[in-house]
Structures are given as structure tokens and as C-alpha cells.
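Researcher: Please predict.
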Amino acid sequence: MAETPATPPTAAAPGRITKRAHTLADGRELIYFDDADTTLPPDRAPDARVLDERPPTATMRQDVLTGDWISIAAARQNRVVMPPAALDPLAPQTPENPSEIPANYDVAVFENRSPSFGPALPLVGSAEADPARLDGVGLNREAPSYGRCEVVCFSPEHEGAFGSIHRSRARTVIEAWADRTAALSALPGVRQVFPFENRGAAIGVTLQHPHGQIYSYPYITPRTQRLIASIDEYGPGLFADLLAAEQAGPRVVLAGEHWTAFVPFAARWPIEVHLLPNEHVADFAETSSAQRDELAVLYLRLLRGVDALYGDPTPYIAAWHQAPVDTHRDSIRLNLQLTSPRRGPDKLKFLAGSEAAMGAWIGDIPPETQAERLRAAIAQADEENPV
């Protein structure tokens, strides 16, 4: 299918990063985000593949014991697992590799072919678009897994992670997160948008290609529901007070004009770092250009420091928590929660009986000790591989 002809390139950041909208052969959306200093031409090849129809939208079932909704997405069983570089599905297409992205790129975002949520969306104004339909608890409750799942490719290179890209590219990815957060938040039935990166085989990654994902949920996630309960009990100033307390304490690992990173007071994981904007913003779409510029630097320094902690790549989940679309926008602050099960050079923390079964966590490393180690690792990474 040819690219969308009527959509001209638009500047995602005026005069800098450029956004180019296209369509894949099966109708999925593909968006290129070109670096401010890109060397790529503006034209992109169309997707000439012949593809099967997209799988049907999955179905959610409710766990009556917790009230949680579970998406049963059987199509995900068919996804590619650790392909060779020559068949990387996130690399630019070649005659030998009919990948998902037709042309060379800086950053590319496209709809997942086998999503956990979507591709169907409820009709605007319909009963299925009403979030209240998922309220309550009952036996054998089902609902369509409405929403959208997107893949964010950080680079055309076969191997790497966010920390391996350069500063200009990091800024482009952040711009893509902001753009997609705004777009996905406007979709009918979407209640929360979640950008994240899984890194490393120990986390369950199935592709070595540097990439992340964005999930758009039809409900407020269980973790955010617990946060809302805490805010409702503590008060709307929870994040401001939390940040002020951490800034005055011993666990800060990075601090800038717009962002602060720290090991939290009650860290669950052996490596756990939270990164908050110093001024309140609910999600990436609300961040300023100055906040995005500084984040491109601080986030790279943080990730490279995490790798320097033990001298080689560390598995992690980089989870960007954002406020729901329709509630607590003034009290839930955008925040990164970076977690890793790595508790030593050759040791991992496994979630066994207490954590996995009961949700009762036991920490392995005192947060103050880990903060001191991370500060030293970040200083080492800054010296060896400056941003």
C-alpha cells in the first residue's frame, strides 16, 4: 500500500524534529520521526508486502478475586523470538528481509501486528466507550480488549537499547513519546497511555533490536489505581512532597534544572531508580521543550550508569507512569520507574513465594547503599562515555 498522500510532513518540534505519517500494507499506521540533524531524505518507500488480515481484537476477562482485567491475546503466541540479524523485523526492509519498516529511519513508530489491546476501538459516544462499563466485580465478566499497542524503534541498528543511542536520537524518541501520548489519549475508550522499554533476556525480551512499546489501556491499571488510593488518602500534594523529601535526602543520583532521579525510600528491586520532573506535568504531552531537552541528557546518563554498575548491560524495565486520561491529572505526575532484578554481577532476584504470591516484598540492598553505588557508576560512565 502506498504512503498516505495527503498528509504533509509536520514539525513535531518547530524547526527541528520532523514527523512523517505513512500506512503499512495491512492498514496499520506507521510514523517516521526524523532527527533534528537527520541525514535521511524526506521520501520513504511504500510497503509493498502482501500481508494477512490483522488478528481479531482480544477479549478481556475479569479476575473476580482482585477485580483486575486480563487480556487473553492468543495472537501474541505467534510473535518472532530472537531472530537472526538478517531477519530482524524492526530493521529497514531489504529484498531478503520483508520487515515491518519499509525504509531507513531515525525513529519509527507503528501499530503492533499482534497487539494485546486493539486494534478495535469503541464508537464515540457508545455504551462501550463509557469507562463505567468496567466498574464493579462479577463472575465470568468479559469485555473487548479495546485500545492500541505501538512499537517504538529507537534506531535502525540490530542491537542496543535506549542507552546506546546518541543525544539527538534520544531527543527524537522523547518527542515521539510526547506525540503518541497526545494522539493515543484522544482515542475513544482509552483511559491510560503507558510508554515502556523492556531490556535484556532476563526480562523476557524477544528482540535484540533497540525498541520500546506504548500500551493504551481501556481501563486504569491496577498499579495506578493503588496510586490514586494513596493520593486520595494523603492529598493531592503527594508527588510534590515526595520529591522535596528525596531532594533533601541521601538517595538522589542525578539532579538537573528540570528533573531529579533518586533511589526510592522503599525500593522493592535491587536496582530501582525513579525520575521525576521538578514541576508538575501529567504526561509527556504536557512537557516543555526545555524539559525534553534536559531529559535526553539525564536519561542517557542514568541508563549508562546502570550499565556501568556491574560493567556490562543490565536487564531492566523502564516504565513511564503517566496520569490517566480522565482523572487525577493535577495530582499524578509523570514519572519513570526503572527497575532491574540484578542484585550482583551474576545474580538475579527471582519473585518467588512472598513477592509473587502475596505481593509482600523483601528488599535485598539498602536503598542508601545502592544510591551511593549508582552515583559512582554514573560518574564513571560520564567519564568513559560522555553524552
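Model: The first strand starts at residue 10 and ends at 11.
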